[in-house]
Amino acid sequence: MSYKMGVVGHKESVIAFKLVGFDVVYAETKVEARKAIDEMAQKNYGVIYVSDTLLLEMPEVVSHYESKVKPALISIPTHLGSNGYGKGKIKEYVEKAVGQDIL
């Protein structure tokens, strides 16, 4: 079974993903982003890339989807640069898997 890949975020940050064939939803607020993520999750998306500034505002959404097999929510920086959210989550996941901070 193949899954779709989508992108949710600020227009300036995600418009380039359309060029490579991703399904893109523009979201400026956490309410818009939550709606888009939930809709994509129901439509068989395996991976959803989301602007890190939006994910930072939605810890409840992140923890909800962390407990599920799909979709995977992947943090991407905005057009203004990274706020460190993605790197922090990777560090958290590695520490959980290994049992200590190795990064």
Topology, element by element:
Layout: E1 4-9, H1 11-14, H2 16-19, E2 23-26, H3 30-42, E3 45-51, H4 52-56, H5 59-66, E4 72-76, H6 85-98
Parallel strand pairs: 1-2, 1-3, 3-4
Please explain how this structure is put together:
47% of the residues lie in helices and 21% in strands. The longest helix is centred in the last third of the chain and has 14 residues. The model has no long low-confidence stretch (mean pLDDT 85). It has 103 residues and is α/β, with parallel strands linked by helices. The chain has a four-stranded parallel β-sheet with strand order 2-1-3-4. It is built from six helices and four strands. The protein is globular.
The end-to-end span amounts to 35 Å
| Count of β-strands | 4
What's the main sheet like? 4 strands, parallel
Percent of residues in helices comes to 40-55%
Mean pLDDT: 85
Molecular shape = globular
Give the low-confidence spans: none
Q: How many DSSP helices?
A: 6
Main structural class: alpha/beta
Task: Give the DSSP E fraction (strand runs of 2 or more residues).
Answer: 15-25%
Strand order of the largest sheet: 2-1-3-4
N to C succession of SSEs = EHHEHEHHEH
Rounded to an integer, what's the Rg over CA atoms? 14 Å
